[in-house]
Write a structure and sequence with these properties.
The chain is α/β, with parallel strands linked by helices and about 230 residues long. Helix content is about 40%, strand content about 10%. It starts with 5 loop residues before the first strand and ends in a 6-residue tail after the last helix.
Length: about 230
Amino acid sequence: MVAERRAVVLLSGGLDSATVLAIARAEQRELYALSFRYGQRHAVELDCAVRLAAAQDVRRHAVLDIDLRAFGGSALTDDIDVPRGADPGREGIPITYVPARNTIFLSFALAWAEVLEAPEIWIGVNALDYSGYPDCRPEFIASFEETARLATRVGVETGQGVKLEAPLLRLTKAEIIHRGLELGVDYGHTSSCYAPGPDGRPCQTCDSCQLRARGFAQAGVTDPLLGRFGLSSL
C-alpha cells in the first residue's frame, strides 16, 4: 500500500480507540497502531490493544514504555484513589486526568508518522460523552495539528503537516457504539475501567465505567464485556 494511505492509530485498548481503529481500517488505511505502557494502574487495557490490533490486521503494533508515574499527579499514575460513584458529567477536571497525556502520546505518534511518511494520525478523543479532560477538546486537536505542521520536516517543506483524524470527536457514546458494531468491533475485548481487577473485571463505579454503561444503555444493546464476567448492567 502506498504511503499516502498509511495511518498511525493511537490504540489504548478501550472502547473509543477500538472503534477508531475499525473506522480507519474500513477507510482502507494501512494501520500502524501505537500503544503505551505509561505506568497506568489499568494496564490490562494493553492486553485488549494486542487482541484488537490482531483482529484488525494491523501492519505493525508498537507498545512503548514511558513511565508517567515518575511525575504522578493523577489517580491513574499515582497513589491516589480512583473516584467511585461520582457523576462523570460534573463540572471540573477530575483527578483521573493524566497531565498532558494526549500531548505526549501524539508527540510520539507524530515522530513515527514522520518516519513512516504517513500523512495521518488517528485518535479516539471525544468531546461529548467524556470526563472533561482538556486534551479531548476540538481546540486541542486543531492546535496540535498546527503544531505538527510547524514542527516537522514535511510541514516545513510542503506547508502541509500530518493530519489528525478524530472521527469520534462529536459523537455520543451510543453513536460510537453503534458505529463500532456496524464494523464488527467486539467490545467484549475492550477495557474502559480505571481500576479493573487483575483479570480485567470492571469495577462498574468509576467515571469511565459509568460513561460506558450509559452509552450501551442509550444504544439499546448489552455490553458484551459484562457477560464475560457474569455481571449485570448498572
